[in-house]
Structure formats: structure tokens, C-alpha cells
Design a protein that fits this description.
Cytochrome Bc1 Complex, Chain A, domain 1, 31 helices, alpha+beta
């Protein structure tokens, strides 16, 4: 279960949380629902029938939600939503997190989250996972919970919801929240699991988080109230002490039940009343504790215009983490009425931050003292209203990096931004608010429910997309240069400034040196302000790709109305206009030969290309031009390297589709090779490399694929020395060849006009020059796999001495012909995961989240695997291998029971059904179908492949792949272990 240090509002959500309804994609789905008109505003507190969420607010209520309150004080909100079809999403929010604990109760809110799942009125001990799986909900995906500083949230996405299953689910959830068992035996079972979670989440990242909490929130409970708790408080927990915490905070007045899904609101409301109205615990409600206010030290004085009075500063030495400076200007947090005027202030704050951040990015792109820097305002855990500044220095001169960032901020504090700067950010906000209106029928019920949970946590409201857009557009006259300057100044004023510097080297800085650097006056930097005034860029002035190409073939695939077309130059495209996805178009371009095309000696350029290829420019556009040309547009440019193809993807909208196609095609035909993005990518790669060593999971992220692919250097994370040897000329040589060769496949799925889109394709991809076949590097076409061995490969990490990871992997296969079998392997791995979870987590408490997964490279004939892994104490590594071997052997010897198989198949069935409500699922399944028609046929059997099997078939698959002599092993142990590492 996820533990959040604080669910804070991001800049993307700074106005009002949006809501919508959806008509899904497939034929059996309901007709589109007409959007309701935006209602007039409500004067704060003027109407007795104002929903409880909107008391004191004049924000137009979102009429899709139905709000109510039971006699016992429990509040609820329900709404109908058909995305995905048949699903109902339930969230139960308890207003109690780690800040509600006493010193001796640290970790109790999160511990309760576990114990509530363990056993309750209607669920026997340890039976929750199996119970919800039988209802079609998978553990960890559909069934989950999280604890933050201020709340605990129980989550369930119930697929294929029927009146019977909904009633049963609400019954089970009500028993969990209102009548958990909380016995001594359950406490004994859950504390080791929480301790395993604490161990797995420890290390350098946890030390930095704790140091930041202590430095920034000194004197407040938040300084030492991590939701995970402490070893002592968890070990000292008793049945009585845990029950006392539960009785104090788990009360109807502190609980909100939120339900959004494919059912009538009256029906959903009836279930809430039926199962929660009778909850009347004895005793009086206890008021929430005080979270305190930031307080400056006695005698602190303001020494610079961009700083509040200086408080605590701290230097933390972490050899494997990149250097980073973070400081915060803190103000007391106060609950406010969530009014339109309040939100207009938030929008002005957002404009101020966006302008500064764009200037900081411009400064970083010019090269110099820092790699990245950002300003971000957050309301933190109802404890502080804070403006954070983060800086990643380049090189050892951290003082210069801090000074350069502060100089950009200082300029923003004394001079108004230009109207052009404001208009640019307003255009970005406008499209951000317009897109939810266009796509209001695409938003899943789970997202709507989560948005409402977050609104409750920050004590604000939600509004419809139409209301959000209307308020924003009507507010534009307020966003003047003077207003933005005033809000900028307010963002950097406060009660106290506190700082933290993370450095790799002892002696680089002291607490006092950091304090002095923050206190030092800086001269405002006008350079990037002037650079920001560059004129906008127009697509109309860009060079043509070439002569529009001719369509040589256009035919139906015979599948879901998907059309395949071909151009004279060899480019092929799959087009699927989907009217049920209004306002959204997804574009994917596959080209070239992927990893197979890159020579092993050029391996370091692969990761650099993923980072820098797009930003190195195209046609007449550099990186800054690419930013400007997409202002106010919904356009994207993601790039990825696959086994046998390179991919460019973007989500856009109908009005921007033609220009999106131009950007992709121009990248292939008119690439630029600006040097600065390459140099910046090199710096980032070198800075990041050491971070992999901080934990077992980091080492696996760095090295696992390298070993799974037989130590093929193309799958190795390049070291800083290898990165240093790369050059801009080498980068261009590798990627110029990759962009110019190999077949091109374009997929366009979503809301678009076919005729207009074909015409746009003719001018872009149809106009490309004919391409040579993608070269396959000599000796690298075949994928190798590790040889079976009982002797593990041993790697080392630099993290905590009680952390380790263990991996066991069985090679399988690859290729499109074997796709049906690969889907059956998903069933087998889910069976394996359930058993591994039960053995290592529930029974032994040795690992928090062990799991098993299957990979099957469709574009290759080999390279797939079934892999089991877990993070454990180093002493438990042999236990993991022994347990995994026993489970594998038992799956070979004995077929699974019918119930065990059903608990895996039903969630898989529901996952496929829900995924198939979006065209993106089909896009992924049909990658490469223009050259391999078998992928069209395999899509027709997708549901059968994932859900129709027998215990005997699973046993046969286990015998085919899971034999002990077929596996290889890897373990990641602490640096100080006596074992010798193969690779540091």
C-alpha cells in the first residue's frame, strides 16, 4: 500500500478539480450524455440547500455529484459515470493521518490501514485479498489504501458491478471501517509487514525526506510525523493502544464515502445508507489536533528581498545522491472559503510561478551553473503555505548556482512581467482548462472519486470542466502585469525561510555556509527576461516536408472499423476514427529498427537519444522554438526505444492533429542537431548514475534488463566514464542514421475526420523520401538469455545494511506467433504472485510487496521471461529463493484449484474489459500490424487467451518453463556484505 508524505495540490490543479462523464468506446456502450449547463453562483452560506461541500463557497456546484449526510454525521457523495463500463469506484476517506498521532502512536494511522484489511465484521482473518478477487478486483490495482499526514483512504474499483456485487462490496467495506477486529493476533501478523515496508522504503531517499521534514517544519508536528512511524512505536503497539486510536478517530463525523460509477445515484446512495447509517460509536467526537504554525527563530531578520527571515539551515551528506539545494519560504496555513475570488488568486499565483520557471529553464538552457531549477507553491499537510525553490547545481560551485537562481527570482520581484509573457502562460492554462471540457466524457469514475478525495483533504471544492473554463476566461482581465508582480512578491514573503543542501562530499558546505549564501543579497538578472520576449513561431512559415504523397492502397482491416492505408513511399498507416472519444486523438509513429539497429559500441547514445533527440530540434525550430510553437496547443512529443522500432507518441486533439503530424514527420526528414540539449543530457545522465546505487531497487532499475538480455551492452545503463566519451558528432552520426532508415508505421486513433487526416498525412509522412531498410548491427540480431544457474549473480548497493533484493527468472520466448501463449503466461504469473505474496508477506512478514511478472517481446523470437522478485532483509535472501523454488515446483507437480484459478481469471477478465473501453488498448495491441497481419488476428482472441484455461493447462505451462534447471538468479546485497559483486 502506498504511503504518501503529503498529498499536495499541484499547479495543474490549482483552480478547481474537474469532473466529467463518459460514453466508452466499444459497441455495447451507452449513448453520449449531454453536458449540463453551468449554473449561477451561490452566495456563501445563503442557501439552506447548498451541498455540504460548497458551504461558504460561491463556486458553482457540480450537479453531477449528489451530496448527502446521514444522521450519525457521516457524509457521502455519489454520481453516475460509465467509464469504464460496468465499474463502480468507491473511496472511503477517514480524516485521520499521522498528524493525528501522539508521540507513542507514531505509525498507528498506517498500521490501522493494514489491520482494517486483515479482519473485520464480514471478512475472516487474512481473507480480504481472496474475497475481493472473487468479486473481480485485483489486489494492489483495484483494491488499495493509502495513509498520508492528514488522511487515510480506502480504495476499491469494483468491475462488472451488479446490484448483488455492489451490495456485497459495500457490506464488506462498511465492516472494515466500522467494525475491524483489531486483535492481538492481527497486530502480531501486521507489524512485521509494516516493518518490511519501512525497510523497503528506507535508504538515502528516506533520509533526505526526513531531513527535509525536520529542517522545513522545525517546531511543528510535521517535522517528525512520517506516516510509516518508528520501530519503537510499532514494536510497542498493543491491542488496547491501537483500538484507542481507532475509537478516537474512526467516527462517522470524520468519514466521507465517495462512490462514482456505472449505476444510478439513488441506488448508490441507498447502499451507503443501508450499510453506514447504523454506525453509532459511543463517546464524543474529539477535535482534530493543532498542526502548529511555522515560526521564525528569535532575533531572525530579513536580509534579502527574495527571502523571509532566515531560520534553520542544514547540510546533509549523501555520496550517491546528486547535489541539490532546496529552500522554502513558509507561511501559516489557514483554511479559507473556496470562493471564485480565492481561485482567481490561485490562478494569478500560478501565472507568477510559470513565468519564473520558464525563465529559470531558459537560464539553464543557456548553460552555466545549474542543470535545473524550479519554484513551486504548495499547501503542505494543512501545516504550512510554502513556496519551495529547488536547484540542481552543475559542478562544485553550488554558491554560483544558488546565486544565479535567486537572481532570476529577484528580477521577478522588482519588475513587472511583460504582457507577452502573461499571454503565453494564459494560453497554456486555457488549453489545460479547455481540454477537460472537450473530453469530459472520457474521465474514469476512479479519477473523479480521487479528485473529490483530494479536494476534501485540502478543504476545497470541485467544479465541472465548463465552470472551471468559464471562471478562468471571465477572470482574464484580472491577470495584469501589476497583479502578477504583486502575487510574485507575496509568494516570496512569509514568516521564515529554511534551507537544506544535499551534497555528495563531506566538507563541501556547512550549515552556516548555506545560511550565509541564502542571506547574501543578489543582483536581479534581466538576461532571461529579455530572452523570454522572443516573437511567437508559426507553422505556416516552416519548410514543407516534400511533395505530397499519393495513397496507393486503402482497405479495411476487418476489425472495429480500422482502416489501413499505404503511400507510394512505403509509409503505412492505421486509422481508427472513434466518435466516443471526443476531443482526444492519439498518434504513434514507429520507425527504424530500435535496439537491433544500434551497434554495441554506440550503446551510450541510446539513453542520450531518449533524453535529447527531441529537444535537439527539427526544421528551423530549436528547443525554445518548439516550446513556443505549441503554446496554447495540445501537442506532445514522447520518444522511446523499443526492441525492433523507435517510437514517437503524442496525445493531441482534432484541431492540432495536422501540426502534430508535421512535427513527427519533420523529425524524420528535417532533423536539427543543436549541441546544447545533448550536453545537458550528458550532464543529467552523469548526475543520475550514482543514485542507482542507493537502494536494491535502484540497482535493479539500472542492471536487471542488462542481465535478462544476456549482458548485451545495448541494455546496459552507461557509466559516467562511458557518457564522457560520447560526442555531439557521434550522437548525430548514430541518430541521423536511425531517423533516416527503416519502415514507418503511423497509428492515429480517436476523434478525427478521416478525409482531412489522410490529406494531412499526404503532406507529412506521405511526403517523406523513400527509406532504406533499417540496418541490423552485425552479430546483434539474436537476443541472448542468461544460462541457467543456481549460483546467483551478486550485485551491491550503498543503501541501508538491512536492505536486499532477490530475483529468480525463467526464460520463455518471443514473437507474434506466440502471443496467445504469452497471455496464458499472465495467468500463470498471477497464480505465482498470489502464492508468493501469501508466503513471504502474509505468513513470514519477510517482504512487503513480492511479485511475479512476464515479458514477451512481440518483435523478437526470444528474450521473454517469467521473473519473480522481492525486497527482503539480506538474511532472508535464501528464504526467497527457497520459497520461489517450492512454489514453482508445486505448480509443476499439482494443478491449481478451480477457486485459485477463478480468483486470477476474473480480475484479468475485468482488466481486459475495462482496458478495451479505450482505443489506446487497441493501439498497443496493433503495433506493427501493418507489416505483421497476425497481430490483427491475435487481437480477436485476446479475451479468450486471458480468461479461458484449465488447471491442467496451467500445470503444463509451469512444467514447460518453471523447471528448477531452467532459471537463473540475481541478488543485490549491501556494500559491506562479504560477498563479491559482479558489477558495482
Amino acid at each position: 500500500m502506498h504511503i504518501s508524505s503529503r498529498a499536495v495540490r499541484s499547479l495543474a490543479c490549482l483552480l478547481l478539480l474537474s469532473t466529467s462523464t463518459l460514453s466508452p468506446v466499444l459497441a455495447q456502450q451507452q449513448a453520449p450524455v449531454a453536458a449540463k449547463p453551468v449554473q449561477g453562483t451561490v452566495a456563501p452560506g445563503s442557501a439552506s440547500k447548498v451541498p455540504w461541500l460548497y458551504k461558504g463557497s460561491d463556486v458553482p456546484p457540480d450537479l453531477e455529484w449528489n451530496f448527502g449526510e446521514l444522521a450519525n454525521g457521516l457524509r457521502y457523495a455519489v454520481r453516475k459515470n460509465g467509464v469504464p463500463p460496468g465499474q463502480v469506484s468507491i473511496r472511503i476517506r477517514v480524516d485521520a493521518g499521522s498528524l493525528y498521532e501522539t508521540d507513542s502512536e507514531r505509525g498507528y494511522a498506517h498500521l490501522l490501514e493494514h489491520m482494517v484489511f486483515r479482519q473485520s465484521k464480514y471478512i475472516e482473518s487474512g481473507a480480504a485479498i481472496a474475497t475481493f478477487q472473487r468479486l473481480g478486483a485485483s489486489f494492489g490495482t483495484d483494491t488499495n489504501a493509502e495513509t498520508s499526514n492528514t488522511q487515510t483512504v480506502f480504495k476499491l474499483d469494483l468491475p462488472n458491478a451488479t446490484p448483488t456485487s455492489l451490495d456485497e462490496t459495500m457490506k464488506l467495506l462498511s465492516g472494515m471501517v466500522t467494525a475491524p477486529t483489531l486483535s492481538a493476533d492481527n497486530l502480531k501478523a501486521d507489524v512485521p509487514i509494516v516493518m518490511a515496508e519501512m525497510r523497503e522504503r528506507g535508504g538515502a531517499a528516506k533520509r533526505v525526506q526526513d531531513a527535509m521534514q525536520e529542517a522545513f517544519y522545525h517546531g511543528q508536528p510535521l517535522a517528525d510525523r512520517s506516516p510509516i512511524g518508528t520501530v519503537k512505536s510499532l514494536q510497542d503497539a498493543t491491542q488496547e493502544s491501537v483500538r484507542a486510536f481507532y475509537k478516537r478517530w474512526y467516527r462517522p463525523q470524520n468519514v466521507v464515502v465517495i462512490v462514482a460509477g456505472d449505476a444510478e445515484p439513488a441506488q448508490l446512495e441507498a447502499y451507503v445508507k443501508k450499510w453506514f447509517a447504523g454506525w453509532n460509536p459511543p463517546g464524543k467526537a474529539v477535535p482534530a489536533p493543532s498542526f502548529g504554525d511555522p515560526v521564525a527563530p528569535k532575533g531572525a531578520s530579513k536580509s534579502a528581498p527574495d527571502m523571509a527571515p532566515l531560520g534553520e539551515t542544514k547540510v546533509l551528506v549523501e555520496p550517491d545522491l546528486p547535489a541539490g539545494i532546496n529552500y522554502a519560504i513558509l507561511r501559516p496555513w489557514r483554511q479559507v472559503n473556496d470562493t471564485i475570488v480565492y481561485n482567481q488568486g490561485l490562478m494569478t499565483d500560478a501565472l507568477a510561478q510559470a513565468i519564473i520557471n520558464r525563465r529559470l529553464e531558459a537560464k539553464a538552457r543557456l548553460g552555466g551553473s545549474f542543470l535545473t531549477a524550479q519554484v513551486n507553491q504548495q499547501d503542505v499537510a494543512r501545516s504550512a503555505d510554502a513556496t519551495f525553490v529547488s536547484v540542481t547545481p552543475l559542478g562544485d560551485d553550488w554558491k554560483a548556482a544558488l546565486r544565479d537562481v535567486r537572481a532570476v527570482i529577484a528580477d521577478a520581484l522588482v519588475r513587472q512581467p511583460t504582457q507577452a509573457e502573461i499571454d503565453r502562460e494564459l494560453a497554456e492554462l486555457d488549453v489545460a482548462f479547455q481540454v477537460p471540457v472537450e473530453q469530459r466524457r472520457l474521465l474514469p469514475g476512479g479519477k473523479l472519486a480521487d479528485d473529490l478525495v483530494n479536494a476534501l483533504d485540502i478543504r476545497e471544492t470541485v467544479a465541472s470542466p465548463e465552470a472551471v473554463l468559464r471562471i478562468f476566461r471571465e477572470s482574464k482581465p484580472l491577470f495584469t502585469p501589476a497583479a502578477v508582480l504583486k502575487h510574485t512578491q507575496q509568494l516570496f514573503a512569509g514568516t521564515v525561510t529554511r534551507g537544506l543542501f544535499i551534497t555528495q562530499k563531506q566538507g563541501t558546505a556547512t550549515d552556516g555556509a548555506l545560511r550565509q549564501a541564502l542571506a547574501e543579497p543578489v543582483k536581479p538578472d534581466e538576461q532571461v527576461r529579455q530572452a523570454a520576449n522572443t516573437a511567437p513561431v508559426s507553422f505556416d512559415k516552416l519548410p514543407a516536408i516534400g511533395k505530397p504523397g499519393q495513397v496507393t492502397q486503402s482497405q479495411s482491416t476487418g476489425l472495429l472499423g480500422i482502416q489501413q492505408i499505404a503511400f507510394a513511399n512505403g509509409v503505412k498507416a492505421l486509422l481508427w476514427p472513434v466518435q466516443e472519444e471526443p476531443g482526444r486523438v492519439t498518434v504513434k509513429v514507429r520507425f527504424g529498427g530500435g535496439y537491433r539497429e544500434i551497434a554495441p559500441k554506440d550503446a551510450p547514445y541510446i539513453s542520450l537519444g531518449e533524453t535529447a533527440l527531441v529537444s535537439s530540434g527539427l526544421a528551423t525550430l530549436g528547443q525554445d522554438d518548439l516550446d513556443r510553437i505549441s503554446t496554447g496547443r495540445k501537442m506532445g512529443f514522447d520518444f522511446d526505444v523499443q526492441d525492433a522500432a523507435f517510437e514517437m507518441t503524442a496525445e493531441t486533439r482534432p484541431a492540432d492533429l495536422a501540426d502534430q503530424l508535421y512535427l513527427f514527420a519533420a523529425k524524420l526528414d528535417l532533423p536539427r542537431w543543436d549541441k546544447q540539449p545533448f550536453e545537458r543530457a550528458k550532464a543529467a545522465a552523469k548526475i543520475q548514475y550514482d543514485t542507482f546505487s542507493t537502494s536494491p531497487q535502484g540497482v535493479l532499475n539500472r542492471d536487471l534488463q542488462f542481465y535478462q538480455r544476456g549482458q548485451d551492452p545495448r541494455f546496459e545503463t552507461p557509466t559516467p566514464d562511458e557518457i564522457d566519451k560520447t560526442t555531439a558528432d557521434g550522437f548525430r552520426k548514430v541518430w541521423e542514421r536511425a531517423l533516416a532508415s527503416g519502415p514507418v508505421e503511423v497509428q492515429i486513433f480517436g476523434d478525427f475526420d478521416p478525409a482531412t487526416t489522410v490529406a494531412a498525412l499526404q503532406k507529412t509522412f506521405g511526403a517523406l523520401k523513400p527509406r532504406d531498410p533499417a540496418p541490423v548491427s552485425a552479430g546483434t540480431a539474436e537476443i541472448t538469455v542468461p544460462k541457467p544457474s543456481d549460483m546467483p549473480i551478486v550485485l551491491r548497493h550503498h543503501g541501508d545494511p538491512d536492505q536486499a533484493a532477490a530475483v529468480i527468472s525463467w526464460p520463455t520466448g518471443g514473437g507474434s506467433v506466440g502471443v496467445p501463449e504469452s497471455r496464458q503466461l499472465e495467468i500463470l504469473t498471477q497464480l505465482f504472485t498470489n502464492r508468493l505474496l501469501d508466503a513471504l508477506r502474509e505468513k513470514l512478514g519477510a517482504s512487503y510487496a513480492p511479485y511475479v511478472f512476464s515479458t514477451w517481446p512481440v518483435d523478437l523470437k526470444a528474450g521473454g521471461s517469467i521473473t519473480a522478485m522481492a525486497q527482503v532483509d539480506p538474511k532472508a535472501v535464501p528464504v526467497f529463493f527457497q520459497t520461489a523454488d517450492q512454489i514453482a515446483q508445486d505448480l509443476i507437480t499439482n494443478p491449481p484449484t478451480a477457486d485459485e484459478l477463478a480468483r486470477v481469471i476474473e480480475p484479468l477478465r475485468q482488466q481486459i474489459t475495462r482496458a478495451a473501453s479505450s482505443s489506446s488498448f487497441f493501439m498497443q495491441q496493433l503495433e506493427g500490424a501493418t507489416t505483421d497481419a497476425s497481430r490483427l488476428n491475435s487481437l480477436r482472441s485476446v479475451m479468450t487467451d486471458y480468461t479461458v484455461t484449465t488447471p491442467a493447462q496451467m500445470q503444463a505451462l509451469a512444467a514447460k518453463y518453471l523447471g528448477k534447471d531452467a532459471s537463473w538468479r540475481l541478488e543485490v546485497v549491501p556494500e559491506k556484505s562479504a560477498k563479491v559483486a559482479v558489477r558495482k
